[in-house]
Amino acid sequence: MQINPNFSRLKESYLFSQVRERTAAYQKAHPEARLITLSIGDVTLPLGASVVAAMHGAADEMAKRETFKGYGPDRYCYGYESLLNALQARYARLGVSLKKEEIFVSDGAKSDCGNLSDLFSAENIALIPDPVYPAYYDANVMAGRKVVFARASAENGFLPMPQEGVRADLVYLCSPNNPTGAAYSKAQLQEWVDYANRTGALILYDAAYEAFVRDKELARSVYQTEGAKECAIEICSFSKTAGFTGVRCGYTVVPEALVRGGARLNRLWKRRQNTKFNGVSYITQTGAAAAFSEEGERDIAERLTYYRENADMISDCLRRLGIPFTGGKNSPYLWVRCPEGESSWDFFERMLSKANVVVMPGSGFGESGEGYFRITAFGRHGDTREACERMEKLLKKG
Amino acid sequence: MQINPNFSRLKESYLFSQVRERTAAYQKAHPEARLITLSIGDVTLPLGASVVAAMHGAADEMAKRETFKGYGPDRYCYGYESLLNALQARYARLGVSLKKEEIFVSDGAKSDCGNLSDLFSAENIALIPDPVYPAYYDANVMAGRKVVFARASAENGFLPMPQEGVRADLVYLCSPNNPTGAAYSKAQLQEWVDYANRTGALILYDAAYEAFVRDKELARSVYQTEGAKECAIEICSFSKTAGFTGVRCGYTVVPEALVRGGARLNRLWKRRQNTKFNGVSYITQTGAAAAFSEEGERDIAERLTYYRENADMISDCLRRLGIPFTGGKNSPYLWVRCPEGESSWDFFERMLSKANVVVMPGSGFGESGEGYFRITAFGRHGDTREACERMEKLLKKG
Q: Looking at chain B from residue 224 to 253, which residues have their Cβ under 8 Å from any Cβ of chain A?
């Protein structure tokens, strides 16, 4: 019996686990320290009242014989119509028309990002931004694929563009980007779509942070460009808008027009999900649909405002310190240059031990992340304010 | 960009979808027909009161800032301790001692059965019972693995045993079996475990129906045999006990003692889940834990009794008709010989059109299933009784 040999090519531990382990070890050695965690992108505001009310209602339906729901509807690959209607309407507001059959409800963007890998041959080359959310890289390494990188740096505004002469079959884009917070404009995204349609590449577009976009010229969906339905899959999530990091619900769009190697990818994904997945809780889906109600939308807007206030607070602090950064305006993440040429992990350790603030070491997101750190706007106001004060105290010059 | 070429080796549509499509087409053509569906193994009794109460409580926690939960606990790969404690206690009652780190909570047995495939090389040969739940076969074909079959027939009591000289790296066992309802005794299972430890094979043991076992000598967990922790992964589910088909929660045991090719499979699975999965709703896990409370256990016992009454009703009907069958006693499924040498799909069509009863064509579960059909005990009493009456009317001789 042989183990998948590609596992040995992975780093021992997943970045986020590593940060949590180091943090826990520090806390254990210094039980008196009041740590503030602005590393992992977990939300801190609770679920909205309309979402919770809808979940209560759904749980009550599940308790009665007449309204109990078993396996999800087969027709839409386990997605309930109420949620699919809401998602169709959301896309329509962005000027994108989708059929219900093109929207697949799942237990989250992370699962879909990884599981989509099943559809592609190991022979493909994956083009992955560097730095980037490590799950894309790890999933492709697990599948035995060669990975090449699209380097993001201050020089290209952390927004790598297509390069002629670099073969890329699977192109991973994340906009607004995790970790850099940089977001593609519609015009820039159009270049990627044109590139994919010209070369036959497939774009895997992670839109998990689209709701944070404030600038009108930036894209909120890859389908806001021309020709994207012929070359792109879009993955999105309720985690960062409705606060579903612990509830688990996402959705993936696989357009019917997307054909590669003679195969309709919509069919392949349905076949994959029918074989290795069985849908998302009726209670969760009902809650997710309620996030699109009038009250639900108002709740989401309030949450976005709250997190944006954090982003503004951190931005102001960094400006006062004279430390260069990107993100924060159209993203919940700020991507910050470590002061005085420090390495990412050294700075992580210094912030942890001297300021008791946990940030994310940039090098964990890829080679080009070395010398940077990521800080999130998902904390509570009080914690964020105090973290800024501690950071200022630690890093103020002279 | 190349598609995974193995998809073309799969049948166009997943068995269960196919049955639903044919049924829907019949209903459309005969809107007046009152169809009774005893095909898919979906439960019909609602969630228990204690489970629903726990879910309400958890939803309320998610609504308050102080008690809101984001991403699940990293330590146990997203499983909450309350649920893991309950699962440890469940195994202890079976005489099996497990560490929390060995139990992985997931969104269901089907997901785990499929996703575990990521851990193994494409070079392995999978041994899969025939007939069997089609997801094992499809997942291995998708991964490009060669599949060999362990044939189940009336001759071996539908319980294939290890065969020397047949190379098998991954051995899929499902007991009580879906679809045949046959269940291994502890002594028989010991033979499989000894075989795997002798040859270095890995057993993937699907225990989704273990709660239906009534006979004391039959196994309820593979770990009730000696040496299983060195060779077996066990997959289990809340679907058929607590009625979670639409709630989605399962668990997979990967013992720390399980080592293959120098790698600890527990570590590999944790790495896989950390990369491509993000846990199960806190609300769902809280509900699942409540299924093990005193009231929850009582609810489950009542549900089992209800479904067993269906199984007994169908068994009596088949005996009166003189039609040979297996299962039903220790399983929610009955595996029945089609009368008069009819093929599975012919009998499916005859039952659909003449009795308006939907059964599962046995050939959909594999070659050896030809000439059989599966009928489930998960229906409502009234429907099951009427289905038996219609079946008797249609099939009574003379």
A: 243, 245-248
